[in-house]
Amino acid sequence: MPWGVGFDAQAVNRLANLLGLEPIHVSQVSSLRTSSRPRSRNPYHFTGEVLADKFRGRTREIEIARSCLNQDPSTPVALVGLQRTGKSSLASEIIRQMQKKDKQLRVISYVLGDFEEGGECADIAGFLLKSIPDKDAIASILGSLRKLKLKRSVGLERELFRDALKHLKNKTSRPTILFLDELHKLDQRSAGSGHSTFPDFLENIAKDKSLGLRLMVGARPIMLTQTESIKRVNLMKLFRPITVASVDENAATQIVNLGQPTFLFEPDAIQRILNLSGRNPYWIQLLCFEAFLHYQGNGQTGKVTVQAINSIFQELLRGGASRSYFEAQYLDVIPLGPPMKLLDQVARLASNEGSRVPYPKLLGITNNNSDSLNRDLRPLLDYEILSKHSDSDPVTVSFISEGLRLHLRYDRNLQLGQPLDLNRSQH
């Protein structure tokens, strides 16, 4: 149907009938019109995996991962970062670049999620076996798996998966990379009854050089502190950890400019986005996505201004539905206890954008114990929530993401200051 033409009344009523709705009178339908001008597709994407054409930055992380995985024997890699920092997208880009160099690279991947107790597989290893792309090469092993339906067994599935890897290595010349995502979800719900011993199995296949396996996992930091089975095995001693946090300024600016040449930002608006987001790619895309909707919905033209970005962020700050976006930036800190208390105190003391909070003002939280302060501060620095500005007096810390500072202060009914001067009555 051409733009600017009315809706097809019969088609609308067929849809209404399908949905169990009352018929719509033709006069109601004929009064509805589409826009005379087609709407452009939003060039920004903040949910799900970022595809290759919109992936920007992470050059250093990719180089480290590829170097580790291409060694002989390879070194397993762990992509560790807070929620919504782009671990899955980074893993996909690493694999994509490796496949570009070696088109024979075999990829086996699994995302930990809801595990069907009593389902077709007893263990993650069973699903990994079934996801091997070379079905013909392991037909006899898959046949053995099918025979296990009546006596599902964690141990047998793991043995079959190991056998499949050995068979593929001996019978084909193709290398294999195994990627396990969301490893921090390793529990009964996501991995079945074998969840407590799965880290042991991972350790075994990681150490077994006869398998020729290149292993990469993605997980939040909570895996290192809250997943008891991983702590028990000390699995991460085998892996080269790569922190996934902010991108560099050049990559961040490239993400903002994904809307070019039709959707542009004023230079100060770009800088405001970088400051609010702390150069977190998820937040950059979210703010730009909302800016695009805002301008197109209001029929605005011209470059996006810093005033528009402040207005959009203010709506996100006030909106209850947006709360999870902010909380993702410190969710893994909450279970740690003291580091969260420290973060809360920094938020209370950082009254202005860019405020640097001196160590002496934080020592009170740790009973003037500098060792405890440094220990509690470590996760906040490692995952780029806070930035430390000196190793000698005066030592200060500040927020990397201005948006997070504003959220924590807003959540605690503290003054925000200009340009987002919200008072308590607006909370």
Which keywords apply here?
five-stranded parallel beta sheet, Helicase, Ruva Protein, domain 3, 44% helix, disordered C terminus, 427 residues, Rossmann fold, 8 strands, alpha/beta, three-stranded antiparallel beta sheet, disordered N terminus
What does this protein structure show overall?
With 427 residues, the chain is of the alpha/beta class. The protein has four domains: 1-38, no CATH class; 58-243, Rossmann fold; 249-318, Orthogonal Bundle (Helicase, Ruva Protein, domain 3), CATH 1.10.8; 327-426, Orthogonal Bundle (Arc Repressor Mutant, subunit A). It is built from 19 helices and eight strands. It has helices spanning 9-18, 26-30, 59-69, 87-101, 124-130, 139-147, 154-171, 188-191, 198-207, 222-226, 228-233, 249-256, 267-277, 281-297, 306-318, 323-327, 338-349, 370-382, 402-411; strands spanning 77-80, 106-111, 176-181, 213-219, 240-243, 357-358, 386-388, 396-399. The strands form two sheets. Strands 2-3-4-1-5 form a five-stranded parallel β-sheet, with helices on both faces. Strand 7 and strand 8 (396-399) form a beta hairpin. The radius of gyration is 26 Å and the shape is globular. The protein starts with 8 loop residues before the first helix and ends in a 16-residue tail after the last helix. The model is unreliable at 1-7, 26-38 and 423-427 (pLDDT under 50).
